[in-house]
Design goal:
With 757 residues, the protein is an alpha/beta fold. The longest helix is centred in the first third of the chain and has 21 residues, at 170-190.
Amino acid sequence: MADDTTTGPNTSFEAREALLYHETGRPGKIEIIASKPMATQRDLSLAYSPGVASPVQAIADDPANAAKYTARSNLVAVISNGTAILGMGNLGALASKPVMEGKAVLFKRFADVDSIDLEVDTEDPEKFIEAVALLEPSFGGINLEDIAAPECFIIEQALRERMNIPVMHDDQHGTAIIAAAGLINACHVTGRSLKDCRMVVNGAGASALACTALIKALGIPHDQVIVCDRSGPIHKGRDDVDQWKSAHAVETDARSLEEALEGADIFLGLSAAGALKPEWVTKMADKPIIFAMANPVPEIMPEDAKAVRPDAIIATGRSDYPNQVNNVLGFPFIFRGALDVRATAINEEMKIAAAEAIAALARERVPEEVAAAYGVAHQFGEDYIIPAPFDPRLMEVVSSAVAEAAMKSGVAQFQIEDMDAYRLALKSRLNPTTSVLTRVYEDAKANPKRVVFAEAEEDVALRAAIQFRDFGYGTPILVGRTAGVRKKLEELQVDDIDSFEIQNSADSEHVPAMVEFLYERLQRRGYTERDVRRMVNQDRNVFASLLVALGHGDALISGLTRTYAQTAREIGRVLDPKPGGLSFGIHMMIGKNHTTFLADTTINERPTSADLAHIACEAAEVARRMGHEPRVAFLSYSTFGNPPGKWLENIRDAVHILDEKQPGFEYEGEMAPDAALNPKVMALYPFSRLSGPANVLVMPGLQSANLSAKLLRELGGDATIGPMLVGMEKPVQIVPVTANVPDVLTLAVLAAAGGVE
């Protein structure tokens, strides 16, 4: 019998949700999938015996052919022994596996680098070194992670010397690169030059020493940097420091962190919460630069530093404050660039190039389309010295800078002849939708809203509501029987039940105003006041919609307990489409290299030509907000009249309406799906106005639209988001009855952040 993971130390709601996340479906976070067809006997004969003999011989003849015939050149191993897991300490190799799987996911998500985690069960540096070094034929790069100091220094140095592939301990160098980028820009904002700065580093672990070394390489003189450990400044004459710390010893009279900070320009903290006292900050130079990077609680909270030094520029490791020093800005793209030129190492030149590229990106004007998609107008300054982690330009800018540095410094085995073409290839390597959705989550955090969860007695809805609040997206309003909701919260072991707002129609103070509002709305539609009162008291969708209509909530989510159509009808008794508009549904299909929007998949059974034109315009706008330049195809069984049919005129008329409107996006129709999506078929119609495969598909009617969306969801390999309801006067989302917690949470955040309206 399996162990019960709901007892013991992991009993909090957050812990159990995290465990459920890792357990649900396929356990863990990664899997291996075939990149070649495996459907026929011929496929198998080519993939394995006898066909595999040919690439084997080719690699034996020339080892460089491994990059052509295997996945090695895009494969990184994430390796740990679990001696320094996150902030949790030495918990062993096996316990580190969830972290290493997570790192592998980030590699894939941000830079399309395939990654596999390896956990080495030894604390002996020599055994660890030997085990990893023997794996060189398998991988294009090695990412070391969560290894305690000083062993991490010994391990990395030995592996770099023995292996002819890139080796990087990210805890050291990843943090160093991002911190260095931030410092470059902090100096820029404050009018400083690095060579003139005095810096104090608090912490002498792997990350701190790597940061110090890289920042010195960027220009701060050795004797202008004081490194402090638990015993105070590392000064010449101290005999209780190891060789790695002693390399940073300087002549100084300071014997405490407080004394060292006198007149310092920069504080760099990689130590412990609360290590930097506000009164010490007052002793620093004008416009002090404070990088307080201890996690989860920094050396000083930004608001405390600002209280005593309003002129300070502050960075932390946290996402809820400006200027987050986040390793994900660096390591995926550093390895991306290193792998693409088959580098034999990641050297100082490549790290400096990465830091300078990240810094330069933050100083650039954020393109209009990025700002529109992300909903935030970033501008270089004291609150934006480090790019946002989900800036899609990082892939192109950082990876190409690293690749160029590798080629110039002589560690590249492959030369990229056309850097412009390479940058274009990098830009097209990732689908931007995931980044944009992540930005939507960040927008929700920045502008939290009150979202009404109409079915709070359902486990799925309630767990999504709890996560909505706990993750900082806004305030959930829970609709249901008070006793029933409280009992569910107790079962989920929520500590602060009284902090949740529960709205129950049986005792809500809002009911009289609701009845008055709804009776005035429905009295000429055959409803008596008694009918209205009964609806308010007994129909949770009506009650929840009225909370939003009367301003007691900002958005609404429902759908788990009723069909989509019934839920839409009940909400429609209270809320209307936008004036002059039309409500409709969009399914978003997200594949590895594409995102496609289907509309209308939920509401309008036989849309008119004007309806189709309106749906096209609104769906195109949603695509834009999701980071895509829309190319709209009006779908039909007929392509430009072949075969002919009697149900084509409304589609053609919709195209004519757009011809008159000139909506500012590409559109074409009527056309079959292959003529809209398959480049080979598209080539048969050179007059088509679409410059590439369509990404917004306007369906001719609800039957074809709803069937297509559900078939693709069940049979296709794409991730599906939706249906997303568009065009209501208030933000409303209706989830499918089969929705799980992530589905509900995503649509709740989209409703709250205005991702679809």
